[in-house]
Amino acid sequence: MKRFYKEVSVGEEGGAFRVLLDGCAIKSKGSNALEVPTRALAEAIAEEWRAQGETVAPQDMLLTRLAFAVLDGVRAERHRIAEHALSYGRTDLLSYRAEQPQELIERQARAWDPLLDWSAQRFGAHLSVAHGIAHVAQSEDAVAALERAIAAHEDFALAALHSAATITGSLILALALSEQRLDAEQAFAAATIDEAYQAEKWGRDAEAEARLKRLAAELAAAECFLKLLER
After folding, report:
1. How far is residue 203 from each of residues 91, 104, 117, 209, measured CA to CA in Å?
2. Spatial CA neighbour of 156 closest among 60, 230, 90
3. Is the N or the C terminus of the chain less surrounded, counting Cβ atoms within 10 Å?
4. How many helices (DSSP H) and strands (DSSP E) are in the chain?
5. Does domain 8-58 sit in CATH 3.30.930.10?
6. Third-level CATH fold of 78-228
7. What confidence tier does 13 reach under pLDDT thresholds 50, 70, 90?
8. Domain locations in the chain as residue ranges
9. Residue 33: other Cβ atoms inside 10 A
């Protein structure tokens, strides 16, 4: 898309902050004005639009995409988004451990066991663990605890939480990011232990590396989004 604007600014209206192009509000695909709850987040989104060259690349504006996910997704279908985030807790990556080799088993345990302990203490969510690919049924109490943890997130935070869970395959990692128990780099490393191990043993694939780099950037954006909501 060719750049069609000259000036990007931030305006305040009713306690919320809008990103403006040549004085006009940016609209989502659902015709919602790009409006966020903090000036810090609005300024960061505005900077994404300022940084565009002659061609606008929406896929590269990760904070903008998360804001649109709230406006067109979470606000319209909060229950569905929350339930999808919860599904990553029901089948959490951290519950599924390798059967072999021992080195990989140990790496997973070192990284993941403390996070499961933290989840149990912080949310009362005691997740079961198994080795292999057989389905692990989590207890109703654990699922209910995770559901309450998700519900505590307002719409904008929920969008970032959902994005993080989708990227990592783990609601526990997403909650750890949201609670600042882990930063994005640590959460991504925990989510990609298997990929890192395989790369060490068999070499790195350029296409796979490009995919991981993109996902790492998206997770970093989710972390940034959450932090900007607090400023």
Report:
1. 29, 16, 33, 11
2. 230
3. N
4. 10, 6
5. no
6. ATP12-like fold (1.10.3580)
7. confident
8. 8-58, 78-228
9. 15
